[in-house]
Each structure stands twice: as C-alpha cells, then as structure tokens.
Amino acid sequence: MSQTAAEFFAALAAPVERIGRFGVFLGRVLWRMATPPWNARDFYKHTWLVTTRCLAPVMAVTFPFGMVIALQGLTIFNIFGAQRLLPSLITVAVLRELAPVLASVLVAAQGGSAFAAELGAMRIKEELDATEVMAVDSMRWHVAPRVAALVLACPLLDVAGALAGLAGGFVMAVCIKGENAGVFLDHLWRFTEPFDLIGGLIKTIVFGFIIGITACYHGFHATGGAAGVGKGVNDTVVHASLGFFVANYLLTSAFF
User: Which of 55, 169, 216, 218 could form a cystine bridge with 66, CB 3.0-4.6 A?
Assistant: First the structure.
C-alpha cells in the first residue's frame, strides 16, 4: 500500500475512532451515574455553582427577547385586530423554545466551559492519573457529578428564563405599548397546555446531559498543556451547542 493510500485510510479511520472513543466514555459515565456510590457532595456543589453563575445572565438575555417577541407580535396582530392573541404567542414561544435554548446556550458557555477547563487542568497536572493510582475511580468522583449537575441545573435555569421572558413580554405590551393588563393576563395561558412547560423542561434535561457529557469528555481527554485545555474548552462550546441544537429540532418535532 502506498503512503498516499495509507494516509487516506488513516484520515477516514480517525473520525470513526473518535466516535467510538466518545461512545465508550458515554457508556462508562452512564453506568457510574446509575450505580452507587455517588458523590453527592460534589453534585450539589456543582449544581449550586452553575445555577448561581448562570441565573443572572439567563434572565438578562431572556427578558429582552420576551420584549422583542411582544413588539414584533403586536405589530402583526395590530393589522388583523387580534391583539388578544399576543400573550398566548409569547407564552408558547418562551416556554417551548426561547427559554430552553437560551438557557442551554449560556450553560454551555459558562458551566460547560468551566467543567472542561477544570478537568483539563486536572488531566494536565496528572491529578486524574494520581486518583487512578490510588484506586479511586476518577470518572465516578469527578465526571459523573458534573454531568448530573448540568442535567439538574438546566431545567432550573429554564424556569427562571421563562419567567423573565414572560415578564419582558408583559413590560413591552402593557407598560410600553399600553395594552390592557387584565386582558393580557387573562389570555396568557388561554392557548397553552401543561405540556408546553413540561416539554421545555424535558428538552433542557436532554440539553444539560449533552453539554455535560461533551464538556467532561473534552476536559477528561485534554492533552498538550495549556493550549490543549484551551482547545478542549473551545470544542466544548462548539460541539455542545451543535449537539443540543440538533436535539432541539428532533425533540420539537416529536413533542409539538
């Protein structure tokens, strides 16, 4: 086999190898999340840190987006004299799409990148190797709690983002555009169903898992010193965002 052909087959095999490596990592993490012992202390710590760090950014982003939806929707509904439908539009848009997606984007940028950096630094400093030498399962005590923390933190932030988005819509429609507050509140839940909220929460659970497993994978397998850690952080945000955007389309098609 010529050198060119060998290089070609090696280039084809590399993506397959990465997919298989990720699949093995995914299975190992799922097994440790499902079986005891669990590192509850780190789980609660990471959940608290991610939630508190991302709460203000999530609300600061979803609030003006709710205002934009109200502004654009009111412009269209005014043409047809259907202003009463505006609250239902805001509620459905915020609960189904706006809050879950924006909350997950910020979690990936804040929590996911932080977890990738932490695990990458531990790998570069050989701390993960040291725990393995001491017969401590590094994936059970360092990886699984971080993945589980994002699975819980994303739905919590989704609820906060949804409340902020609805508040933004109310401020724009009632306080700025002069719509009747009673009519707005009366129609807020007129065309929504409980599954609109439940579906958004299910989405963020899936998104949180995708972000967590992607971040921990890149951090756990970081190589090449500080530059390798930086690459892992960058890859985490890019790959996690792509992953949950694809998942968002599939889940939206299935749910709604």
Answer: 169
- Is the pTM higher than 0.85? The answer reads yes
Q: Cα angle at 59 between 55 and 64, to 5 degrees?
A: 160
Structure tokens at 99: 């809050």
Burial of 20 (0-12, 13-18, 19+ CB in 10 A): exposed
Counting beta carbons within 10 angstroms of the beta carbon of residue 133, is it exposed (0 to 12), middle (13 to 18) or buried (19 or more)? exposed
Question: How many whole angstroms separate alpha carbon 243 and alpha carbon 45?
Answer: 26
pLDDT per position as a tens digit, 202-232: 999 999 999 999 999 999 988 888 888 888 8
Decide: 112 and 211 in contact? Cβ < 8 Å. yes
How is residue 191 written in tokens? 């065309």
Percent of the chain residues past pLDDT 90, beyond the cut: 45
Q: Which of 163, 191, 198 is nearest to 86 (CA)?
A: 191
Closest CA to 228 of 87, 110, 121: 121
Domains of the chain, residue spans:
59-255
Quote the tokens at residue 127.
Answer: 């701390």
Burial class (CB in 10 A: 0-12, 13-18, 19+), 45: middle
